Amino acid sequence: MAWALKLPLTDEVIESGLVQDFDASLSGIGQELGAGAYSMSDVLALPIFKQEESNLPPDSENKILPFQYVLCAATSPAIKLHDETLTYLNQGQSYEIRMLDNRKLGELPEITGKMVKSIIRVVFHDRRLQYTEHQQLEGWRWNRPGDRILDLDIPMSVGMVDPRANPTQLNTVEFLWDPSKRTSVFIQVHCISTEFTMRKHGGEKGVPFRIQIDTFKENDGEEYTEHQHSASCQVKVFKPKGADRKQKTDREKMEKRAPQEKEKYQPSYETTILTECSPWPEVTYVNNSPSPGFNSTHNSFPVAEGNGSPGHQPEPVVQVADNLLPAATPQDAQQWLHRNRFSPFCRLFTNFSGADLLKLTREDVIQICGPADGIRLFNALKGRVVRPRLTVYVCQESQQAREQQQKHENGDTASSTFFVYHAIYLEDLTAVELTEKIAQLFNISPRQISQIFKQGPTGIHVLVSDEMIQNFQDEVCFVLDTMKAETNDGYHIILK
User: Fold this and answer.
1) How far apart, in whole angstroms, are the C-alpha atoms of residue 408 and residue 411?
2) Degrees (nearest 5) of the Cα angle 78, 79, 84?
3) Residue 320 φ/ψ, nearest 5 degrees
4) 149-190: pLDDT as tens digits
5) Is 377 exposed, middle or buried (0-12, 13-18, 19+ CB in 10 A)?
């Protein structure tokens, strides 16, 4: 009986001890947060933000990142705890990216009061698509002529200086910004995830992309090539309003899950924090950079020097003639089909060599691929080239002067002089297209050409417009001369 009376007392003692232990374990919580300033780096140390740690150096966990980028779009609630966040975007919609200075007082003083350059890219998340990125982007270019994958919404952006988008790099934009000032950049992604999915029966799952930002500071040569920070996040792009529907669907699915199941998933955050990652391969910046790197001093216009300096790397040129050869292996034939926008039929022609494809008749190809794609494939196999709307022949005036001087020094007084002309083929018949073709011919950036003039009567210089080009005679010949621009470091081209 005495034992029974003491049982409640024993329970009270045990319960009291547990409460004291629990209170002791809670003591001190919140004191450190209240004692000092709030540190964003503590939040970034959480597991959900360590999505690229395998690509980072071992000491990256304790390193304070110099910059931070925040994409103002909500993350999906249907992502498991230890997986990387996924953000849904609408095609063509402007999304803000806040460029934040995360440096401590006195850290990196060499960039204080100076500009840095950031390059934003939309790249593939899947490794298999990364290996064929060039072919994928070229295929997209052919299907969407004149469109870009990534654009800057310049009117909405704040603090952005000298924005640039190169015509040959559809998925890249770059700009300068001052870390000490408020900077918000608005981007638009125009491709959708399902455009890079093999078509089967409809309803295919779209591929994920990565938005990556690489930031550079000036080196001793005042070129923005010294890497400072890189970060990225995973996104999927849907047709307009499709991202909102997908976000709503994910949220409704999570609400139907049991409470213990919900604990396995991340909450949806209002913004997406880009996490540190490895920088984009440097070879891209060196060889295919859309500009000389925001140099304060520019190279002289290389038209007068022939085909440019030997060390200059030309921008990528779309291959015009890509005829399939009979000796092509089945692997080569697959690559050719992919390059020429016949990816949906690659599986049908898996074991076909170049000779096998070239033996197909027009009726065979139409029966296999359908009327529209069949005619297109047959014309591509036969290498039929569409005649350009306008052909222009150009020659450098400096080359003519050198050859005439050489003949004069050699005592050759013959009237016939041999000059080398280059052919320029125009399709759009615009001044912009002519500028790009001249720049491409001489391996320079189109930005180095300020204006193009045509020498008129009495030696006057007439600005070349779209209407003037449309009235050029086919196979017209011009001699190119250059003149230094007064307002910038570029050059004027004069057609004589």
Assistant:
1) 5
2) 155
3) -80, -55
4) 999 999 999 999 999 888 888 899 999 999 889 999 999 999
5) buried
Please tell me the total number of residues recorded for the chain in this structure: 496
Distances (CA, A) of 269 to 34, 65, 233: 24, 21, 13
Report DSSP state, residue 80: B
Sign of the dihedral defined by the CA atoms of residues 237, 243, 245, 247, in that order: positive
Tell me the Cα Rg of the chain: 31
- Token match 């994958």: residue? 149
d(CA 366, CA 381): 13
> Does residue 216 surpass a pLDDT of 50?
yes
Chain-centre distance for alpha carbon 437: 22
> What Cα–Cα distance (Å) separates residue 243 from each residue in 89, 140, 247?
5, 21, 6
Which strands sit side by side in the sheet containing 390-396, from one edge to the other?
A: 422-426, 390-396, 476-484, 491-495, 449-455, 461-463
Query: Would you say 300 and 398 are in contact if contact means Cβ atoms under 8 Å apart?
Result: no
Distance of CA 477 to the CA centre of its chain: 37
Burial of 415 from C-beta contacts in 10 A (0-12 / 13-18 / 19+):
exposed
For the record, the structure tokens of 487 come out as 């307002």
Handedness of CA 391, 396, 400, 406 (dihedral sign): negative
Element (H, E) at 98: strand 95-101
Tokens in use for 266?
């991340």
Residue 100 CA to residue 72 CA, distance in Å, equals: 13
| Residue 443, C-beta contacts closer than 8 angstroms, at least 6 positions apart | 302, 307, 308, 312, 314, 315
Euclidean distance between the first and the last CA atom of the chain, given in angstroms as a whole number:
121
| pLDDT band at 271; cut points 50, 70, 90 | very high
For 32, counting Cβ atoms within 10 Å of its Cβ (0-12 exposed, 13-18 middle, 19+ buried), the class is: exposed
